[in-house]
Structures are given as structure tokens and as C-alpha cells.
Amino acid sequence: MIVANERWLDALTGEYLLGTLRGAARRRYERALREEPLVAGRLEFWQGILTPRYSKMVELQPSSRSWSRLESELELARYRTPWYRKLSFWRGWAVATTAALVLAIAFQTLRPVQQPPAQVEIARLAGKNGEAVAVAAMSPDQRMVELRSLRAVQAGPTQSYELWLIPAEGGAAISIAVLGSLDAHFALPPAQVGKLRTGAKLAVTLEPAGGSPTGVATGPVLWLGEIKS
Amino acid sequence: MLDDREIKRLLLHVAARDEGSADAFERLYKACAPLLLGIAQRIVNRREVAEEVLHDGLSTIWKSAESFDPLGMQPVAWMAAIVRNRAIDVISNANVSRVESFHEGAEENPDGLLDRLFEWSADPGEAEDSRRAAAWLRGCLGELKAVERQSLVLAYDRGMSHGDLAAHLQQPLGTVKTWVRRGMENLRACVEACMGGTR
After folding, report:
1. In terms of CA atoms, which chain A residue is nearest residue B71?
2. Residues forming a β-bridge with A54
3. Residue A138: in which H helix or E strand, if any?
């Protein structure tokens, strides 16, 4: 193309960009664009002026087949990131692994707990004034004992509560548990299983922290209750 | 829509033709195809043809991504230019009178349309240069005569040829040609004056 003068080139370039340059004239202009740097320079200048940004109002959603058609025609599969190199894969992997771990932990944690069997109330422990402060209950297999306080009772930092069994047939009180509070769930010492039966008594004494050092009650009896099973 | 810097990054990734290029192209597609289809539709005015133009335009973008100059044009403008070019080629070759289909545009107040169609306010992700250029363009379009402004907007936005404009505006061909030519001259002079003012 012969570029007669700059003003004429400007007019052509403007109309090319605008879209009003059509047909053979448009083809000629495009050829000049490839061949003559002056033309490309003018187009660049015009593009700097005439590039309005369309608003979102213009947008239309392409048909669903549009992307898959491009993908197959341009053979895009050759330029895909392999699945094992994708960040999203590792992210997904991390999420999945974490989820599996959480499940495994939850399973391990939940399994031994299982559903605790219904406890049967066996005694109410009351003070000298007759007010009950705790309920004792036992599992049906008589191996587990649960204490549940009826009002908040807690041993001081240098003290412990000790729970004793006073057998129905008489004899020395037998230590069953050392407690910090009257809310507790514990296994009965195997030797005492079956001994928490009607007629026996449960007593709570106040002892030094860690329980009676001698194996017999050293402090005052705080609460006492007769077993009715 | 992603910001210009992100789109530029995706285009460069497409151009690199490595194993992530298709993924980058897919993200580019998701971000820009609705806009590009919208631009095509405004020019060709038939949905199935617009979808074809979008397809061809995106194929060109994929194939010529390496020729995208990251220091030159804004990336969305570069892609839009490819799609507009394809759309103009398609309507130039179609031997159909397109004028009837522009009635909806005829009822629009051209100045109101100008502000709804384009985003003139500054985009936070936009470079200072293009922000300034947008302000100049809007200001200078406002200073044109109404007939010139209307001719330029219809030609740019709806892809109207001189003949389409003459039929649509019901004016002699020579008159609309003059409006377009003078409109572009005045626009250039005005923007150049703005540029001069900042230097």
C-alpha cells in the first residue's frame, strides 16, 4: 500500500478500527498492517484512543457445547497439566486425607466408649442433716459405679474424698475410690464386684489429697447412704 | 471478571504452550467468553452466528496468543479486537440486509446507551494509562456533534457499515461518510489535545 500521507493513513486506520472500512479496502489495510511498521504504529495509537471497556450488561452466556468444541478442535488435551501436578489435586488430596484421618481418629475414640449401659441407682448419699448430696448408680454387670452430685461439691486442693464400702455382713470399711468431686465414673475393684448389695453402705470421708495413707478412713464421714439394689 | 493483570498472565501462559496452557486457556474462557460473545452478538445480531464468531475468535486467540504484546494493548481489548474483526468479516461477507434488525438500537437514546454499554468509571485493577484514556475518550465523545457521536457508536458497537448507517439514519451515503470521517478526526484531535495537556 502506498501511504500517501499521514492524515489519510490516520483516517483509514480510524475507520478500520471503527469497522467501517470494509471489503477489499479492509483486506489491503490488513496486508499493510503486516508489512509496514508505520501502519501498525498508527493502529496502536488509535487503539490507545478507541478501546472503550464494555460493561457487564453486554455479556451473554455461551452455549454449553462451546467449550468442549474448542477443546477438541484445538486438541487442548495435549496442553493439560497432568492430574498429579495440579495444585487443586494436592489440595483435594490433603482434604481427603485429613478427612480420612479425622474419621479414623473419631472411630478409634468412639469405639471404646460405645453406648454406656443404663445405670441403676443403688444409693443416695446424705449428710448428717439428711440432705442428699449425691446419687450412686451401678452398671447392670456390677462392674462400673457412677456418682452424680446433686449440688456442687468439690474437695479442696489438699484434700480428697474417699468412697468406702461398708459390707452388709459388717467388718472393716473397704476403699472403693479416691475422688476429687462427687461426679465420677469408675470401675469397681474386681474384689468388690458383687458386694454392693442391699444392706451394705457407701460412705464418703474427707482424706488428705490422694486418699487415706493408711488404708483405713482417717477423716470424718461426710456423707453416708444405704445400698438398695 | 478477572483483572487485567490476571488475564495477561493467563494469555502468556497460553502462549507458552506448556502442559498448563490448556488450563490457563480454560480459565481465560470462563472469564472472558461471555463478554466476547456479547460483543459478537451486538455486531452480528444472530445468536448462532455470534457463537460461531466466538468460536473462531477464541481459536485465533489460542493460535496467536504468542503475538500478544503484554507491554502494548490491554489484554481484554486485544481479545475483543480479534472477535470484533471476525464479526465484521462475517457480516461483510453475508449478503443480507441487516438494517431491519437494528430497530431496538434505534429507539435507544444514543447518549444513555453510551453510558450503559461501556464502563467509564475507573476499574481498580486498571493501569493509570488506560484509566486516563477512558476518561479522555468519554469526554471527547461528549464534545462531538450528536450525529457524529451517534454514527461512531453505531459503527463501533453494532458493526454498521456506511451503507447500514445511511439506511438506519435515513441520510444520504455521502452525509454519513462525512459524519464518520469528521467524527473520527475530531475525536483524535480532542484526545491528542488531552494528551498534550498532561505532558
Report:
1. A44
2. B118
3. strand A132-138
B142 touches chain A (CB under 8 A): no
Min Cα distance A60 → chain B (Å) is: 5
- At A10-59, the pLDDT tens digits run 999 999 999 999 989 999 999 999 998 899 889 988 988 888 888 888 99
In tens, the pLDDT along B82-115 reads: 999 999 999 988 755 555 555 554 445 666 788 8
- The answer to whether the CB atoms of A66 and B187 lie below 8 A apart is no
Q: Do B188 and A10 touch (CB under 8 A)?
A: yes
Can you tell me the distance from the alpha carbon of A175 to that of A192, in angstroms, rounded to the nearest whole number? 9
The ipTM of this complex is 0.89
Please tell me the number of Cα atoms within 13 Å of A41 on its side-chain side: 4
Neighbours of B178 (CB within 10 A): 15
CA distance to partner chain B, nearest, from residue A97 (Å) = 25
Please state the rounded mean pLDDT for residues A145-171: 84
The single-letter DSSP state of residue A154 is: B
Instruction: Return the bridge partners of A204, or none.
Output: A163, A223
Query: Can you tell me the distance from the alpha carbon of B188 to that of B183, in angstroms, rounded to the nearest whole number?
Result: 9
Whole-prediction pTM value?
0.64
Among A29-33, A116-120, A124-128, B40-44, the minimum mean pLDDT is found in A116-120
SS3 of A170, please? coil
Q: Residue A79: closest CA among chain B residues belongs to which residue?
A: B19
Interface test with B, best of A49, A69, A88 (most B CBs within 10 A): A49
